[in-house]
Design a protein that fits this description.
The chain contains eight helices and seven strands. By secondary structure, the protein is α/β, with parallel strands linked by helices. The structure holds guanosine-5'-diphosphate (GDP) and magnesium ion (MG).
Length: 232
């Protein structure tokens, strides 16, 4: 079984060496793991560091934002015939050792989300995550402890779907709404997460409030749109 590990990275030169080292040293995961760093228009040495540490690198033509970066990785996985793709943060927040738990939860699910015990770290984020959980539940019926988590595993049906449509900014909750609307099965599993290992988070302060507002509307619209779209 071949798994492409998609690592979206915007200025993550500090965290990547340790992360890629951990991925190389993964103990007995029953799969062939290929890491690909999606360098999303970084202004630091992200691409060079990733290459030096043995990863494949896709360099975006400019900063596309997390959605564009992730979809590029998904397209690579789908078009090169990988069986699964995993998505993990380039900041070291998602321990590669936990990938086995995502794989273990795949069963007959098409998309697996890793969530952490205590939820996001800051109060503002916890409130936002709670609200988005409610919105997703009410509008789409998806039960997910942390719809904002970017620690994910995509099976073949998710790769096929997201190859053609994937949301752009703040994509994680919206992607769940699209998946559900198109009949995919979503599962989740408890994982351990760490703090970001260097670099800076994309979401803080005012951006967090905008994020919650934007995603609330986007989730509802994405669900309705995907339900109305004729199936191929
Ligand atoms: N900040 C930012 N991160 C991006 C972008 N594109 C890809 N990423 C990467 O996406 C991942 C998730 O972003 P992060 O800032 O860690 O989000 P958080 O974990 O929710 O705080 C990280 O590995 C980033 O390096 C972008 O345009 N901006
Ligand atoms: Mg992060």
């Amino acid at each position: 079984m071949r798994v492409l590990v998609i690592i979206p990275a915007y200025n993550e030169e500090h965290a990547l060496p340790a992360l890629l080292g951990e991925l190389r040293a993964l103990p007995n995961l029953d799969a062939q793991v290929t890491p690909v760093v999606i360098d999303d228009g970084s202004t630091d040495a992200t691409a060079k560091v990733a290459e030096e540490h043995g990863a494949r690198v896709l360099r975006m033509c400019k900063n596309l934002g997390i959605g564009g970066a992730v979809q590029s990785g998904i397209r690579l996985a789908f078009r090169e015939g990988f069986d699964f793709a995993a998505q993990i943060d380039g900041d070291g927040q998602h321990p590669p050792g936990e990938l086995a738990k995502l794989m273990g939860a795949a069963g007959d699910a098409d998309l697996v989300v890793g969530y952490r015990d205590k939820g996001p770290t800051t109060l503002l984020r916890r409130i936002g995550s709670w609200w988005l959980r409610v919105v997703l539940r009410v509008t789409t019926g998806v039960k997910c402890n942390d719809p904002t988590s970017g620690f994910r595993l995509y099976g073949p049906r998710a790769l096929a779907l997201f190859d053609s449509e994937y949301p752009y900014d703040y994509p994680e909750p919206e992607a769940l709404a699209i998946a559900r609307a198109r009949g995919l099965r979503v599962n989740e599993v408890l994982v351990t997460m760490r703090e970001r290992q260097g670099g800076q988070s994309s979401i803080a302060g005012f951006a967090a409030a905008y994020y919650v507002f934007k995603v609330t509307i986007a989730v509802a619209l994405a669900y309705v749109r995907a339900r109305l779209k004729p199936r191929d």
